[in-house]
Amino acid sequence: METPLSEELINELNEIIKLPREEQSLRLKEFFKKLTPEQIEYLKQFQTQQCVFCGITLGKINSYKIYEDTELIAVLDINPASLGHVLVIPKMHLKYSYEFSNKIFEISNLIAKRIKEVFDYDTNIFIANGVNAGQKFEHLVINIIPRYSGDNLNLAWQPKPTSEKELNELVSKLKFEIKKEEVRKIETREPKKIIRLP
Ligand SMILES: [Zn+2]
I want to staple 124 with a disulfide (CB 3.0 to 4.6 A). Which of 8, 95, 145, 160 is the partner? Predict the structure, then answer.
């Protein structure tokens, strides 16, 4: 599909994508006012297929890399929750951590350990598995968030009361054992095809 956008507009959009969420939506409103209906239609289609994290892993978006191998990349979050916030991103466009090998957890552990060794910071390791868990681009990312005294970060939630009956029902539904023959082999999958601006 030919892009109906000028190079100037593409550059502006690439700058907007890098902005923090609130600023981004304000700038996007202004940006859309300048476009023709044809350009808006193109972008709507594009937006549903575009993924910032694929942009990072492909090097189309500049990043501050601290680790890279053939399957994943670890970069500094440019809008960190705390100083030294790292994102571990699979190069495949996968949504769930269980679609990837456990290597992603091993690398995350190494990064948490490194943060401890270098800065003596503790860490929260946070994963959003799916859109309802907070994913913006349906692309798995593991957040390694350094924690230190005075970081002003609040990851607390409101605990909800639950009954013994509910707890027993949940155990009966969720309880499991791992049998040898059930250990699933993690397949190597091809990333989903994503259309990108040239
Ligand atoms: Zn992606």
Answer: 145
Q: State in Å: Cα 137 to ligand 1 middle.
A: 7
Rounded distance between C-alpha atoms, residue 112 and residue 60, angstroms? 27
DSSP state of 84: T
CA–centroid distance, 193 to ligand 1, in Å, is: 9
Q: Name, of 1-10, 41-50, 131-140, the range with top average pLDDT.
A: 131-140
Report CA(174)–ligand 1 centroid distance (Å): 30
pTM confidence score: 0.68
Residues, the chain, total? Answer: 198
Q: What is the DSSP letter of 186?
A: P
How far is residue 26's CA from residue 149's CA, in Å, rounded to a whole number? 33
Across the strands, what pairs with 72?
90
Instruction: Calculate how far, in angstroms, residue 51's C-alpha sits from the geometric centre of ligand 1.
Output: 5
- Secondary structure element (H or E) that encloses residue 144, with its range: strand 142-147
Q: What is the mean pLDDT of residues 81-99?
A: 93
CA distance 37 to 53: 28
Structural domain boundaries of the chain? Answer: 7-50, 56-147
Domain 56-147 has CATH 3.40.50.2000: no
SS3 175: coil
Beta bridge partners of 68: 73
Q: How far is the CA of 78 from the centre of ligand 1 (A)?
A: 18
Q: How far is the CA of 82 from the centre of ligand 1 (A)?
A: 24
